[in-house]
Design goal:
By secondary structure, the protein is an alpha/beta fold. The chain is built from 19 helices and seven strands. Among the domains are: 157 residues, 3-Layer(aba) Sandwich (Rossmann fold), CATH 3.40.50; 125 residues, Serine Threonine Protein Phosphatase 5, Tetratricopeptide repeat (Alpha Horseshoe), CATH 1.25.40.10. A seven-stranded mixed β-sheet has the order 2-1-3-4-5-6-7, sandwiched between helices. It comes from Geodia barretti. Keywords: ATP-binding, Kinase, Nucleotide-binding, Serine/threonine-protein kinase, Transferase.
């Protein structure tokens, strides 16, 4: 089964490196406010980002970087680093397909007490109104992110971006850049952490310059630094170190780090617990998977934590149990199907979909007679098709997903085309 095990990428995050930092160690540099922005790559989204650029350009010690939504949603490590290490995150939720992922990432920032966040949305009516975010992501997400600043804006016929504050009527709208400037100034007063900047800078440096045993040794030194400096004993830093250990497959160190702080509130953060569960499943010593499932069940007992990667990790553990039983543990098979199905319901994605489809076929279902399988296959083909032609793909796992769904549907001609593309790509080591 060639399905991709995402390393809980979205659980993925508070980050390693304060991107864009200069090498200077002066007090001014240490006080630099970093801002990351995620806006739709279209005309109005670009105009809104330009307003943010104008605001940042008028503020001292403010550094702005735009990151692509696709890389954030995919869970690219470097992009996650930038998003979670930033002092301020500004995201635009105008596009419906971006909402679930962006609100999840903002929720994770807030979970780590990184509350300098701004949500913008393009008004859809002729007058300013509350964002109509639709589905299950709007009002509930806004309630959870109560500390986040919200801006509704419009783009007039001349291309000017306008917003309003305090419920003023449209004819009292102000340029959007002024609203951004006011918010960024306020947030700058809440900016903290010389110690965290230094830690993240050092973590990024060792990740860039070291590998294997040398990187492992440097990471152990950094964990000692955390022990010695209470300012660094925060959920986001612990999470960053866990991600670094994960990338070199040092699962023992991941588990030991969490075990060392068991009972502390930072260790109970859902993202920290999920990374530990991931490591336990991969290490797979006696009792590890039972412990991993217990940790995940506790996390998933809170409805707000029902996000695809957490749900799918639960499915992955049950699937591994099924495989280890030489395909005899039917309870494990049905549990795996249940959790992958839940992950696919929350947000249709290639990882959950291909695993769900594969397990349904193993359970005896067929594409020709099972409506659920047919619907999953259609959704997967749509998601993959949106990424371009098969020959243009550079992501091994996207092609592998196409290969698997073709095999399951018994479309061997397309499967052979995908297999050739997979052969030409360099697969990840894990």
């Amino acid at each position: 089964m060639a399905s991709k095990e995402k390393a809980v990428r979205r659980g993925s995050s508070p980050a390693r490196a304060m991107q864009g930092q200069k090498k200077s160690g002066s007090s001014k540099q240490q006080q630099m406010q970093t801002v990351v922005a995620v806006f739709p790559d279209n005309t109005k989204g670009n105009r809104a980002f330009a307003a943010l650029e104008a605001a940042a350009g008028q503020l001292m010690q403010t550094e702005l970087q735009r990151i692509p939504f696709e890389k954030l949603d995919y869970g690219e490590t470097a992009t996650l680093d930038k998003f979670y290490a930033a002092n301020v995150a500004v995201v635009d939720v105008t596009e419906r397909h971006m909402q679930a992922a962006l609100f999840y990432q903002l929720g994770l920032r807030e979970n780590f007490d990184m509350k300098n966040n701004v949500v913008t949305v393009l008004e859809s009516q002729s007058t300013f109104s509350e964002p109509a975010l639709g589905g299950g992501n709007g009002p509930a997400a806004m309630a959870r992110l109560a500390g986040t600043s919200y801006i509704t804006y419009s783009v007039d016929s001349e291309g000017h971006t306008l917003s309003r504050e305090g419920g003023s009527p449209l004819n009292q709208a102000v340029p959007l850049y002024k609203t951004f400037k006011h918010i960024l100034q306020d947030m700058h007063t809440a900016y903290r952490k010389n110690h965290k900047e230094m830690f993240y800078k050092h973590l990024r440096k060792v990740r860039e310059m070291k590998e294997g045993a040398e990187l492992k040794a440097e990471l152990h030194k950094l964990t000692m630094w955390i022990d010695e400096d209470p300012k660094l004993f925060t959920g986001d830093i612990i999470y960053s170190v866990l991600l670094s250990y994960r990338d070199i497959q040092d699962y023992d160190s991941m588990i030991s780090l969490v075990d060392k702080i068991t009972g502390h509130q930072e260790a109970e953060k859902p993202a920290v617990q999920v990374q530990c569960a991931f490591a336990l499943n991969r290490r797979n010593k006696e009792g590890d998977r039972s412990r991993a499932l217990a940790m995940l069940e506790k996390v998933l007992s809170v409805k707000e934590n029902h996000v695809p990667d957490y749900l799918c990790l639960c499915g992955r553990i049950h699937k591994d149990r099924f495989v280890d039983s030489e395909h005899s543990d039917q309870d494990a098979l049905q549990n795996a199907i249940h959790w992958y199905r839940e992950g696919f319901k929350v947000q249709p994605n290639e990882y959950a979909g291909i695993n769900l489809a594969t397990l349904l076929v193993i359970s005896g279902q067929e594409f020709e007679t099972c409506q659920e399988l047919h619907d999953i296959g259609s959704t997967l083909n749509y998601l993959i098709g949106k990424k371009g032609s098969l020959q243009s793909q550079s992501d091994y796992w996207i092609v592998a997903t196409f290969f698997e769904v073709s095999i399951l549907a018994r479309d061997y001609t397309r499967a052979c085309e995908a297999a050739l593309c997979m052969f030409k790509l360099k697969p990840p080591l894990w």
